[in-house]
Amino acid sequence: MLQYQTLPVTPFQQNCSILWCDETKDAAIVDPGGDLPRLEAAVARLGVRLTQILLTHAHIDHAGGTAALAKARGLPIVGPHPGDQFWIDGLAEQSRMFGFPPAEAFVPTRWLADGDTVAVGRSVLAVRHCPGHTPGHVVFHSAEAKRAFVGDVLFAGSIGRTDFPGGDHATLIASITQRLWPMGDDTVFIPGHGPESSFGRERRSNPYVAGT
């Protein structure tokens, strides 16, 4: 069964998650935006073996620590979708703009597309392409654990911003209703910021998508 622990990182309090297979102890880290010493300490404390970096999208608070961690650990970078190439190319500029530590651009080891899968030990994550916040945003879904790691697509009580380059409100709403809702009302999601919620709760009460 897939297990996870979430640690808020960077001044933006971005939810970085460490996922691992409880059988093999193989682990992946989702969106290492920064504060790498804290993340390294958490991996050591959990006693898991970090094997890959998974990215939902390439905004600085989600991807800022990716190149440094990949180099230090010799890890493959998996994701996001190629639509976020321009955000990856602009990471150094993003870091200056938002006052983050210097961040390097990188080339993902593997780009992801809708319908792909990613293995973490014996656990399998389904990949859904969910553009709208960024063009190349992806979501990772564990059907067995009933968990989805959704980055900045959906939040408890809110949705992702669409005023950045490449963002589009109608596209984001379509991603939520067509790609997330079918995962089931009882699926708990881990957003890029703030507390967890369930798709059912958001369908009932989120003012941006209630009743969709």
Automatic annotation (TrEMBL):
Q: Name one GO molecular function term.
A: hydrolase activity
- Cited SUPFAM superfamilies: Metallo-hydrolase/oxidoreductase
Keywords associated with the record? Hydrolase, Metal-binding, Zinc
Q: Does the keyword 4Fe-4S apply?
A: no
InterPro entries linked: MBL_Glyoxalase_II, Metallo-B-lactamas, RibonucZ/Hydroxyglut_hydro
**Cofactor names:** Zn(2+)
Q: Which residues form the Metallo-beta-lactamase domain?
A: 13-193
Q: Which Gene3D superfamilies match?
A: Ribonuclease Z/Hydroxyacylglutathione hydrolase-like (3.60.15.10)
Name this polypeptide is given: Hypothetical metal-binding enzyme, YcbL homolog
Q: Where is this region: Disordered?
A: 192-212
